[in-house]
Design goal:
There is one protein chain. The chain has about 300 residues and is of the alpha/beta class. About 40% of the residues lie in helices and about 15% in strands. The strands form two sheets. Strands 7-6-5-8-9 form a five-stranded parallel sheet. A four-stranded parallel sheet has the order 2-1-3-4, sandwiched between helices. Helix 2 links the parallel strand 1 and strand 2. The radius of gyration is 19 Å and the shape is globular.
């Protein structure tokens, strides 16, 4: 973990296989309270998008580390009035020890990181959601004992979640199948990168066939059909995405011991049925809790506490 000290996490592939494995091991130790870490550090949260789990889990994770949290709401700070990113980044760098940013453009996140010397964490952009993936991988490990050799099927929009799942699976030996409607597939550059990373170790598949994608899968994963900023197209997407709904009929094709994941918030009756998310297969609430443990491990590593 020492090689992570002072680094940024802007995308899933900023980590290598050894580093992800180490973070997951550290998260398990923190979750089980085998290890207790303390610091006197300050985390800044700069969120341009709404958040429940990311905001709360980052805050609690830092408090558990003994640090402090400052919520830098854009609506009450100068960034909301158009202060240049370069200026904001250099000022926050003088005040904070670590900064988590939730924003729209990946390029804005990268600009912050270029002008700040402290670790900068991607707390979600339109391109990726690497912190969510750490929690997802931790949850799959808890359920199956390992990642390698298992298959995760993601159904829905080829969005930031799909991108990070592809890269996270490739790095850990988890087979990843993305089933998305035509015109809503993940970024081809991300798919190519995931295949390069995976090599012969795991399978990376993108298809328009939800049934074929779910066949025999150990993990069935979904997300909202319209991400933040796409609300105007939400209703028009419903008939396009309906065949990709996680429901009992589709789940019958998966491994009998399969689990259901959803990064939340969920629109019951759209991307997932109430029956599915409340079923015995659902590990959605464990997955949400693991955001806190995975982010605690990540911050501990970036701050050099381990």
């Amino acid at each position: 973990m020492k090689q992570l000290k002072g680094r940024d996490l802007l995308g899933t592939a900023d980590l290598n296989t050894e580093e992800i494995t180490g973070l997951l091991d550290l998260a398990r130790q923190l979750k089980s309270q085998e290890l207790e870490l303390k610091c006197n550090k300050v985390l800044g949260l700069l969120f341009y998008k709404a958040s429940t789990r990311t905001r709360v889990s980052f805050s609690v994770a830092m408090y558990k580390l003994g640090g402090q949290v400052i919520d830098l709401n854009p609506s009450v700070t100068q960034v909301g009035r158009g202060e240049p990113i370069e200026d904001t980044a250099r000022v926050l760098d003088r005040y904070l020890d670590i900064l988590a940013i939730r924003t729209y453009a990946q390029a804005d996140l990268e600009t912050f990181a270029n002008y700040a010397q402290i670790p900068v964490i991607n707390a979600l952009t339109d391109l990726e959601h690497p912190c969510q993936i750490l929690a997802d991988l931790l949850t799959v490990q808890e359920c199956f004992g390992s990642l390698e050799g298992n298959t995760l099927t993601y159904l829905g929009d080829g969005n930031n979640m799909a991108h990070s799942l592809l890269l996270g699976g490739a790095l850990t030996g988890l087979n990843v199948r993305i089933a998305a409607p035509q015109g809503y597939e993940p970024d081809p550059a991300i798919v190519t990168r995931a295949k390069e990373i995976a090599g012969d170790r795991s399978e990376i598949v993108v298809t328009q066939d939800p049934q074929a994608a779910v066949e025999g899968a150990q993990v069935v994963y979904t997300d909202v059909w319209a991400s933040m900023g796409q609300e105007d197209s939400a209703n028009s997407r419903i008939p396009v995405f309906q065949p990709y709904q996680v429901n009992q009929k589709l789940l019958e094709l998966a491994d009998p011991q399969s689990i259901i994941l959803h990064c939340l918030p969920a629109h019951r009756g759209e991307e997932i049925t109430a029956e599915a998310i409340e079923s015995d297969r659902s590990r959605v609430w464990d997955q949400a809790e693991n955001r806190m443990h995975a982010q605690q491990a990540l911050m501990a590593a970036l701050l050099g506490l381990v």
